[in-house]
Amino acid sequence: MTDPTSLPIGGMSCASCVVRVERALTQVPGVTAAHVDFATARATVAADPGTDEAALVRAIEDAGYRVPGWAPPGPTELAIQGMTCAACVRRVEGALRGVPGVADAAVNLALGRATVTLAPGATARAADLVAAVEGAGYHAQATTPDRRTEARVAAAAAEAADRKALARALLGAALLTVPLLVIAMSHGAIPGTSGAFGRWLQLALATPVVLGPGRRFFRLAWVALRHRTADMNTLVAIGTGSAWLYSTLAVVAPDLLATGDMAPHIYFEAAAAIIMFVLLGKLLEARARGRLSDAVRGLVALQPPTARRLDPGGAEVQVPTDALRPGDRVVVRPGERLPADGLVLEGRSAVDESMLTGESLPVDKAPGDAVVGGTLNQGGALHIEVEHAGTQSALARLVEAVEQAQGAKAAIARLADVVSAWFVPIVVGIALLAFVVWWAVDPTTGGLAVAIERFVAVLVIACPCALGLATPAAVAVGTGRGADLGVLIKGGAALEATSRIDAVLLDKTGTLTTGRPTLAEVVGAEADEILTLAAAVEALSEHPIAQAIVAGARDRGLTLPPVVDFTSEAGRGISGVVAGQRVQVGTARWLGELGVDAAPFEAEAARLADQGRTPVFVAVDGAVQGLVAVFDPPTPEAAGVVATLKAMGLEVAMVTGDRAGTARAVADAVGIDRVYAEVRPEAKAARVAEEQARGRRVAMVGDGVNDAPALATADIGVAIGSGTDIAMAAADVGLLRGGVAALPVALQLARATLRTIRQNLFWAFAYNSLGIPIAAGLFFPWTGWQLSPVLASAAMSLSSVSVLLNSLRLRRFGAHHA
Question: For the purposes of burial, counting CB atoms within 10 Å of the CB of 589, is it exposed (0-12), middle (13-18) or buried (19 or more)?
Fold first, then answer.
């Protein structure tokens, strides 16, 4: 350590404590000076470079004190820019693992982040890691958990800039490629496009596309070549480069390639069209990947930027939330979000914890209750003592859980990327072999022209156009049809994973149920009178249960009388005078404290609870007269959806944070056998992992922010459109309308799309693989078969057309669902 280190000290009570802590710190090897400030409860330590901060913490703890909020330094993190595929991930990981002292490196493609673990005693610096990444052809910036927000902002800006650049490149390519295709396909039918002028015009249109928007593919192919690998960029560069170079030579020096009186064929339109279509696919992919970060950005936005901290004199001071430390006291007013985790010291209020629990009902808070940062204070002012802030808060851990779960997914797989590792070298080898053999057979100018045609024919037939369109075309049509049906599927990886699902875990509230409690039952001799009195006092409350009771009374046509002398105790009950009668509505425990015996209705309350209802006692003038109960009912389509999923051969289970009685009642109503109740958010993700450990490919369906880690951990996360934007962003599939009824449609569409992708890849490879030996002239000596670049281009186009036509069949999927 070169700069002084500042550490918070907990447990000091007098000046003697200061002396003991200072003595303990100065005895640590390498420490040159230590000063402890009792007023601020902080130690400032000066030490030699290389002194371990953990040794200072151990010395403080051995002296009988503690260092609040301290955590051992974790792995080094780097923000990576410029990665596009799985091959990029392999190159970056390889470069980082090659740095001396690096024990392991894991790259998260979706988040553009690398986590590097150093070996014990390693001296590798962040600058060494950055240099290794940049040497591999990418951009990197070292970051820390405390600076992740800055890194996220920078990454989002870089992604937005890349999308804009792709959009500009695509627009420029399309403006030149469309007229080029028209001219080329007219074969001189358009006046002025035949002969030498038309050929030079095609050269003039194609060259800016190849050397402008297409330049990125050549640059990335060169990076891959330097690292002795090949990917889709290699295929694009070879296909477009060969077609353009041959065509340019045919225009500039036609005699060199002419056969008899016929001018050599040109392939400018093929080169330009390939670049245009691949750019379109890259743009769609970039937009889909950009949405992955929306989940994290939405969670981070829940934390308020500032907090009202109380100074020792009790005055409020506005400070950045990041400046909060354990032990600080803060004030949170109604309508504000809590800045950190802590304990309530003063005040009572209802706090909306739906971001954590996913349940819509606010939770009443009183002195001594724990609260969580990012939750919304809906009632009175609260004074809170901070326990966990910054990276140690529950919200920060939830953000990290989402990031880690997303990173644990398989990288965005491209079958073409995997195949190209061996397919490209083989194709180039066959093309070169064909060139050498044919020129050796006839080492004349005519023989050179034939050899070049064979070389180009092989490369053109092996062009990645059909291979590149096989997946994006089906994905584009499949996702487009999904949007028509109210299903948002985020890209090809999500489609493939969705098609393989064999187990579905469903959240309860807002997924299988409406998410809006309603009046279920009134128990008592005079039901209408009991409901009228209860609703009258509940009308002055904003609690969702109160709103359900009031709505139920009004639905029955009851008139609510005025209320006077209204009082409310958060989480316990409310009271008021209605028509001269004291009416109390609340829990049995609260009524008991007021001297009201609730025992006569305890059995009925237990019965309602077993049915998943929430019972509320109603007392009039000191005697319990009855009960009102609310219920969050299943959606009308939930039972049919569960039956359909089972008919598809899927295992179905419910995972919810609700209590067991409510969960079991809903499960019985919709036909679900397995129920996991009272499951916290982090445990939901663990439950998903347990199902995966059983060999299941799991879909998690939910609508709350609390479901985000489970949605990301699952093989596929499905968010209901009525849920939060954050849950939707964390999911791979969003059901935009129709609620859970759209789930079977999403799964069936994914299966149909994957079948189409497999068919497309088969035909793309069949056309290319069967055409290559013919293009090389392998059968010419025996059969006279040969494939000119013209026919090679036609074969390529035919394979592309077959892929597109096959993909367009998906537009007819599920017409009855529209």
Answer: exposed
Among the listed residues 341, 417, 507, 658, the single catalytic one is 507
Residue 267 neighbours by CB under 8 Å, 6+ apart: 243, 244, 246, 247, 456, 460, 789, 793
Residue 328 CA neighbour count, 13 Å, CB half: 28
Question: Alpha-carbon distance 89 to 92, whole Å?
Answer: 5
Distances (CA, A) of 324 to 304, 308, 318, 601: 12, 10, 11, 48
Cα separation, 728 vs 709, in Å, equals 12
Enumerate residues 6+ apart whose C-beta is below 8 A from 166: 279, 282, 283, 286
Distance CA 472, CA 623 (A): 70
Phi-psi region of 304 (alpha: psi -120 to 50; beta: other; left: phi over 0): beta
37 DSSP β-pair partners: 42
The pLDDT mean for the chain works out to 78
Q: Cα 53 from chain centroid?
A: 35
Helices (H) and strands (E) in the chain, counts: 29, 29
* Pairwise CA distance, residues 722 & 742, whole Å: 12
**Of 36-50, 162-176, 258-272, 696-710, highest mean pLDDT:** 162-176
* C-alpha span between 692 and 717 (Å, rounded): 13
Q: Which of 91, 83, 430, 80 is nearest to 230 (CA)?
A: 91
pTM to 2 decimals?
Answer: 0.51
Q: Mind giving me the DSSP string for 72-109?
A: ----EEEEEES--SHHHHHHHHHHHHTSTTEEEEEEET
Task: State mean pLDDT over 640-657.
Answer: 91
State the DSSP H helix or E strand holding residue 120, giving kind and residue range, or none if neither: none
Q: What is the rounded distance in angstroms from the CA atom of residue 282 to the CA atom of residue 262?
A: 39
Nearest to 235, CA basis, from 468, 469, 429: 468
565 is catalytic: no
Strands of the 564-569 sheet, one edge to the other: 518-524, 623-631, 614-620, 581-586, 573-578, 564-569
Sheet holding 5-8, edge to edge: 5-8, 42-47, 31-37
568 Cβ contact partners less than 8 Å away, ≥ 6 residues apart = 540, 541, 574, 575
Using one digit for the tens of pLDDT, what is the confidence trace for 243-283?
Answer: 788 888 888 887 776 666 667 777 788 778 778 877 876 77
